[in-house]
Amino acid sequence: MEPRALAIVGAAAIVLVVLAVLLTRAISPSSPEPTPAPAAAVESPTPAGPTVVPTQGPIQATIVPLEPSYTVQAGDNLAIIARRFNTTVDGIVSINNLTDRNALRVGQRLIIPTQ
Questions:
Q1: Span 71-111, pLDDT tens digits
Q2: Where do the domains of the chain lie?
Q3: Residue 84 near residue 112, CB atoms below 8 Å
Q4: Is 1.10.10.10 the CATH number for 69-111?
Q5: pTM of the full predicted structure?
């Protein structure tokens, strides 16, 4: 390689190193910003539905089941419910952790598995 080409490559390498240093300093400041004090709590009316309180720390989440649910009515049994929702008795028993297939209560809420 001729000397002029070597000089150009060397100069380009120096420029890249300088840019890398400048970008590093721009991205990570030398002293972190102070954390602002939390704002005073303001009472507001309680909204309907689940409330998620923002915190500093781990993310808080509300888990909402994606499967439909059904409330047991008088005269229902697992076979009738399974047929109504086009699923199986075993699927309903499994997803609801039922220990006795014959012990449904009126008003009991069941998760219905989707296929």
A1: 999 999 999 999 999 999 999 999 999 999 999 999 999 99
A2: 69-111
A3: no
A4: no
A5: 0.44
